[in-house]
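Structural prep section.
Before we set up the soaks we want a predicted structure of the protein with pantoate in place, mainly to decide which crystallisation condition to try first. Input record follows.
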Amino acid sequence: MKPNIATRVAEARKFLKRKSEAGFTIGLVPTMGFLHEGHLSLVRRARRENDTCVVSIFVNPLQFGPSEDFDAYPRDMDRDLDLLASEGVELVFSPGVKEVFSCDCSTIVSEKKLSGFLCGSARPGHFDGVCTIVLKLFNILRPDRAYFGEKDYQQLQVIRRMVRDLDMEVEVIGCPIVREEDGLALSSRNTYLSEAEREQALALSRALGEVRSVFADGERDCRSILAVVRKVVGSYPMVRLEYAEVCDAEDLSPVERVDRKVVVALAARVGRARLIDNTVLAP
Ligand code: PAF
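Run finished without errors. Recording the tokens verbatim:
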């Protein structure tokens, strides 16, 4: 069955208010559309764990820098709606920019610590944009649970922190990265890759595979772990590593030894795509 589509805040609120008044729980999957199996895995989990599943589709201008790919970001609403219909999603919230941000909008939400690490330096203001839209979606849609992919590991931790700090009544649930058979993490931006770049992009998951293997053999020194990453990525000439870091898995501060749960996080440019990937290591 086709999902209900709300393009207005008031419509979405009305639909979901009726559901929560009837005692139904609401699971939200926030997306920017151009859906792939990674998004659909979140949708399936949200459907399993809640009575009602709502998916938001909104390419949020606030989280793109001036030289980033807001205009080029892939969009295909018809295909997205077909996919969501086949997953049994009840409501799709897909507002226009003006419906979400009035022209004199002057409030942003800024997480001040975790947002500064990793992608924070290359994408100033990005996480303010993410926090602001996610908070607005939570306020509009009032979900009991919200589902995010662990590929955007920093985003997930920043949102968890925002929810904790602002006493928001929503459970944030992180879901495992979904990969192609050869290991490439699914991302809407993979569509930017040419065939040759797609092959080179495997550098990220292969480097993380090597990391897991040296970790399993007992390596705990982060400099050595990062040397492994650089060696693997260095053998892929079309890949420009932006960062490779080992961080505390919760607060994302850099660590020197794997003496607690950590995340090894990578970002790289391949052609015009900026790709990220990560793996969590727990001693
Ligand atoms: O991960 C994304 O697709 C976006 O950052 C999100 C969470 C939908 C906010 O725009």
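Observations: The first helix runs from residue 9 to 21.
Flagged for discussion at group meeting.
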